[in-house]
Amino acid sequence: MELSQQQLNFFHTFGYLLIQQAFSGPETSKIINAFEWSIQNYGGGPDHDGSSRTMFPGPIEHHEDLCALMDYPVILGLIGGVTGEDFYYAGGDGNYYTGDTHWHPDGGWGRLLATKTAFYLDPLAADSGALRVIPGSHRPDHVIRREKINVNDSINLFGVPSTEFPGSTVIPTDPGDVIIFNHDLYHASFGGGQRRRMFTMNCTIKPKTSEEEELVSRYFRTHTPGSNNYVTGAGMYYPRLIEIANENRMVHMERPMEIHDELFPHLAVKP
Predict the structure, then answer these.
(1) DSSP string spanning the chain?
(2) What does the alpha-carbon distance between residue 226 and residue 216 come to, in Å, rounded to a whole number?
(3) pTM of the prediction?
(4) Residue in 164, 132, 163, 162 with CA at minimum distance from that of residue 149
(5) Bridge partners of 54?
(6) Per-residue 3-state assignment (H helix, E strand, C coil) for 125-178
(7) Which domains does the chain have, with CATH numbers?
(8) Measured distance CA(59)–CA(116) in Å, rounded
(9) Backbone angles phi, psi at 89, to 5 degrees
(10) Which residues contact 186 (CB under 8 A, 6 or more apart)?
C-alpha cells in the first residue's frame, strides 16, 4: 500500500490517519486470536478483573501471526509512508483497558518524528472508548501547547467537560481498522468498558543527522523495555520476534537492538 499525497498531508497537518478495514475478515480474526494468546500467556490476562488496565510489552513479539505484521504491505506502507521506509521499530504495548484514559501526548518529541500505530480489536464508538484526538495538537504552535492549557481541567478553565474539549474529534473504529498518530498528539478515550482490547507498534524515523541520533537515543531511554526494566531475555525485543526475523524485518530491528544494548547493557544478551 502506498499513501496518497492527500493522506500524507492529512497526517502531517492533523497528526493522525485512520485506515479503515486494513485487514480482511480472516486476517483480523487471526490477529485477534494471536493477541488473546499473547496476553493470556505473557501479559497477565488471566488475572485481569476489570478494576484497572492490564498491560504487557512487545505485543507483536510473542506469536508468529503478530510478528508477521512487520511483513504486511498495508502496515509497511502506512508506517513507512509516514516515517520513512527504513523506520525503526521500537516496541509497543498490548492492553485490556478499563474505563477512561484522560488527555495526554506520549511525550514531547518535537523535531523527532515518532509514531504510534494502534490496533483496536473491538467495535468502539464515542460512548464505548473510541480514540479521541485534538487534531493538530502535535504542532508546537497549537494553542494547547502555546498557552500551556491543561486539557483535563477544561471544566474549571472554560466550563466545558474534557469529553467535549473544543476542536477534539472521536474516531470510531471496527476490528480491522488501524490508526497511526504522532506521539506528540493529544489523545484520550472515554466510556470504555472493562476489557477494551488494543495493542500498538511504536516507531521512529531512522536518524540522518547527529541531532536526530541524539533524539532517537532519548526516545529509546523512555519508550523501550530497558526504560521500564522489562527483561525480555533478548534485549530490545522478545526472543520469538528475533528468531524468525528475515532480512527485511531486520532493516527495522538491527540498529534499535544495538542502541538498546548500548543504553541498557545489563539487559543485553551476552555472546
Answers:
(1) ----HHHHHHHHHHSEEEETT-S-HHHHHHHHHHHHHHHHHHS-GGG--SSS-EEEE-TTSSSHHHHGGGG-HHHHHHHHHHH-TTPEE---EEEEE-S-EEEE-S---TTS-EEEEEEE-S-B-TTTT-EEE-TTTTSTTSHHHHTT--GGGHHHHHS--GGG-TT-EEE-B-TT-EEEEETTS-EEE-S--S-EEEEEEEEEPPP-SHHHHHHHHHHHHHHSGGGGT---SSTTS-HHHHHT--HHHHTTTHHHHHHHHHH-GGGSPP-
(2) 14
(3) 0.96
(4) 162
(5) 96
(6) CCCCCCEEECCCCCCCCCHHHHCCCCHHHHHHHHCCCHHHCCCCEEECECCCCE
(7) 5-206 (2.60.120.620)
(8) 13
(9) -85, 125
(10) 103, 104, 105, 133, 134, 137, 138, 144, 151
User: Do 219 and 112 contact (CB within 8 A), yes or no?
Assistant: yes
In the block, residue with C-alpha cell 509516514? 82
Instruction: Name 16's bridge partners.
Output: 181
Q: How far apart are CA 157 and CA 196, in angstroms?
A: 30
In tens digits, the chain (271 residues) has pLDDT values of 899 999 999 999 999 999 999 999 999 999 999 999 999 999 999 999 999 999 999 999 999 999 999 999 999 999 999 999 999 999 999 999 999 999 999 989 988 999 999 999 999 999 999 999 999 999 999 999 999 999 999 999 999 999 999 999 999 999 999 999 999 999 999 998 899 999 999 999 999 999 999 999 999 999 999 999 999 999 999 999 999 999 999 999 999 999 999 999 999 987 6
Distance CA 73, CA 81 (A): 11
Distance CA 236, CA 256 (A): 7
State the amino acid at position 43 in one-letter form. G
C-alpha cell at 76: 509497511
